[in-house]
Amino acid sequence: MKPSKYITRIITLLFFLSAAAYFGVYAYKIFYGSYETAAVYEYTGESTLPAEGWLIRQETVLPNGGNLEEIAVAEGENVAAGDVVARVYSTQEALERHRELERLEAELERLNYIHTRGAEESDAIRLGDEIISSMTSLRFEVSRNQLAQLGDQLDGLQELVFRRDYTYSTSSALSDQIAELNNRIVELQTATQSATSTVYSPVAGIFSATVDGYESALTFDILEDVTPDSLRAAAGQRSATSGQELGKVITSFDWYYAAIMDQSVTKRLSTGSAASILLEGAGAAQKMTVSYISSPNEAGEVVIVFHSNKNLSAVTQLREQNIDVSYGSYTGLRIPARALRADQETGQLGVYRVSGTQAEWVPVELLYSGSDYYLVRSLTQGELSQFQSAKLLRAGDEVLVRGKNLYDGKVIE
Q1: 68 found inside a domain
Q2: Which of 205, 176, 240, 202 has its CA nearest to residue 79?
Q3: Beta-carbon-side half-sphere exposure of residue 73 (alpha carbons within 13 Å)
Q4: Is residue 66 a part of any domain in this protein?
Q5: For position 118, what pLDDT does the model report?
Q6: Are 86 and 72 contacting, i.e. CB atoms less than 8 angstroms apart?
Q7: For the chain, how many structural domains are there in total?
Q8: What is the mean pLDDT of the chain?
Q9: Spatial contact of 336 and 40, defined as CB atoms under 8 Å apart
Q10: Does residue 296 form part of some domain?
């Protein structure tokens, strides 16, 4: 073999060994010799427990309506016994006459307003300025996507335009138009009355248009000595609905959430304790109180009954809910789970904080365990000097998550 071939092979081997050594050292630094840090920041963790349950209210179902009905009250609105909750029309023509009647009554109200206020209030220049101002405000709110008051703003603008249109009408002309509207309204009232039936609320309470079949199955009566089995049995007695129900009236401001949970929750929840329950569709979490805890069944399940007499209007359409019950919150300094260490001699928990180019041991107290993090606070005893206070763990500090052979004062490169 020629000498040049030996030289080529030797050079190739040296190159391979050099590359292997380089990557070996690099890998060693990555897995054994390097350090990884994470920032400390303040955080609030919620302690939650899963639950399966139903909302229980005292409810009176209204009679069936029909295909042509008009609900007169809003969801969650208070009604008194005898209040009108709906109107049912025998024909489509009767429904259209009623809507025309409402439009004419609104127009009559505006004309009477203009007629009684006089010429001073009907000044065209002033009304024009108000219309421009209203349109500008409306456009600004729409551009900001602030639509909550859009309906009221449109009604106000329509009122101004209507008043301006009648600015130059004489008093006698307005009187004639008012008389003509009154006659037309009387005619429509006479024609509509015979084809319309009115539904009144039989009881006082809060109106809901949602009828789900649980109204007679899940009542306050089942809460006495309720068990997981009896609660499931009651929910299974849900009746079929026709779809023609006008709605219901919730007759008590007290409402309950009866939840089936593992018996281990009794270590954290007890009768009289508070909890927050986030019900889907209710917006903010509902603050409730534990009013009853059943004995466990053979499967280790208990029924926890939560009670509230607030925010009923926010939960009128809710019934079956699978949720997490929050029974407490903890605020502390959040660190990655890998950053928490224990002193091998004393067992004291702590972290290694990066202080300049050194690792500094900071004892901490564990407050809360998350899925991949802990909430901690610095361990302190008695009064601290200014120097000692400076050594406490604070938000914004960097702690070591990974590092080999760490000790207090070790130089970190």
Answers
A1: no
A2: 205
A3: 25
A4: no
A5: 55
A6: yes
A7: 4
A8: 81
A9: no
A10: yes
